[in-house]
Amino acid sequence: MPERPFAGTQPQTLYFQVREALRGRILDGEYRQHQRLPSESELMRAFGVSRITVRQALNDLVKEGLIFKLAGKGSYVSKPRPVQNLSRLQGFGEAMSRLGYKSVNRMVGLVNLPASTRVAAALLLEEGETVTEIRRARYLDNEPVALDTSYVRAELGKRLAREDLVARDIFLIIENDYGIPLGHADVSISAILAAEEQAQWLQTRSGAPLLHIERLTHERNGNPLELDDIVYRGDAFSFQARVERD
Amino acid sequence: MPERPFAGTQPQTLYFQVREALRGRILDGEYRQHQRLPSESELMRAFGVSRITVRQALNDLVKEGLIFKLAGKGSYVSKPRPVQNLSRLQGFGEAMSRLGYKSVNRMVGLVNLPASTRVAAALLLEEGETVTEIRRARYLDNEPVALDTSYVRAELGKRLAREDLVARDIFLIIENDYGIPLGHADVSISAILAAEEQAQWLQTRSGAPLLHIERLTHERNGNPLELDDIVYRGDAFSFQARVERD
DNA sequence: TGCCACAACTTGTTATAACAGGTAATAATC
DNA sequence: GATTATTACCTGTTATAACAAGTTGTGGCA
Predict the structure, then answer these.
(1) Weakly modelled stretches of chain B, pLDDT under 50
(2) Which protein residue lies nearest to nucleotide C16, measured between its Cα and the C1' atom?
(3) Could you point out which of A70, A143, B181, B240 has its C-alpha 20 to 30 Å from the C-alpha of A242?
């Protein structure tokens, strides 16, 4: 097996390993912005895998916007962007660190409370059933950019209450520590005005434009797991995506 | 050839035909929300294509959020959403009609002007070179939801000036009439406040929250083609996406 | 009737193979 | 030297095949 650099505690699919190896080289600067990557044939030989495995890895990176392909020419590294990417479900800290940014969280609060109609419906609970509400502020370069309110079932909330939610992403805790694989999220993006409390935490003025994200994250088996309400400062953050025509 | 229902003026790939046939059945109501689709084996037999062709078609629909897959169980129709989908590059009217909504455009204006620094850089022009600015308001159910300002090179703008931009999407004109295949777009989403003119067109108040989309669309060969600034009313529209974990 | 094992069915991963059409380099010709 | 044709290389599409892991149904046994 020629080049399987990924050493993890769990066996990984081949395309996962190839993808992460290429990502590492892009983030390390071995492949620069706009530089052409090795061809599929070269990657097949280098990693000792079939072409379809290489293509799956490359297409995942295309989907994330890290590279782009030109028919007949090859694959190229995209221009880096400090963004929350919509092509792939990942936590904030996870997304920023993949792009080389350092993010910090601050706890606003963690309480158990009865589920509202909206939260109950999203998490498939009875209205009034106990849920855990976790609130955090997100900082980039020591500047608050987002306020995140998460709702999970009380059993999961009890476990999470014992975790270091300042330094760690909930997604990674759930996957790595609790062994619950994540599936997909349904994400809604809209624009709102900052309320007083939001403005204070985000160090902006009341009435300032905010991006509001509602995200319902599911386990891989389809069960709803976590409902998030996230507001981002409109002047300090944007979502970016590369969208393919087809 | 058993089931190739798509009859178009241009030859289409097999996975495109399978995908569009399935889309049609979902939108026609033949496959209902949460209903299970035929298995991959069944679709292979029904369409007389290989499994990889069926999977490509299904995965594209997954990518768009129209269906979701559960390992070992099958594929299911997702809950329908009246949204501008971020998974796939398409014009506003195109997106809405695929979801069964009727959208209408109104021309705000079409002028040739010197390219600003931003527009010139995006379209790879010299600053001051002539570009065409096309401005339109978008209506859903007779209600203004978006204001769209597009910049294209003057040669393309001259041709577009002769088209019916009220009834038709620019993307479809460019692809179908001019034979220029589209590739990808780089999209940025942020939140802003409505300026006076925007508020008037969108029938909302000055200072209301708007979603601001900046989109640079490329030809398939990578050349930049069109720069769009689109603002959507925050209270009447949102973007939604289904994001996979991986 | 309930439980367990096995078979059938499902999607996911990976392999090999061939052809199509686009791009770039090289060789041949004027 | 410039132009054209050919070759090599590139990604895109499609096919067949096999194995892995998850899900569901069926049959046998207690």
Answers:
(1) 1, 3-9, 81-84, 100
(2) A50
(3) A143
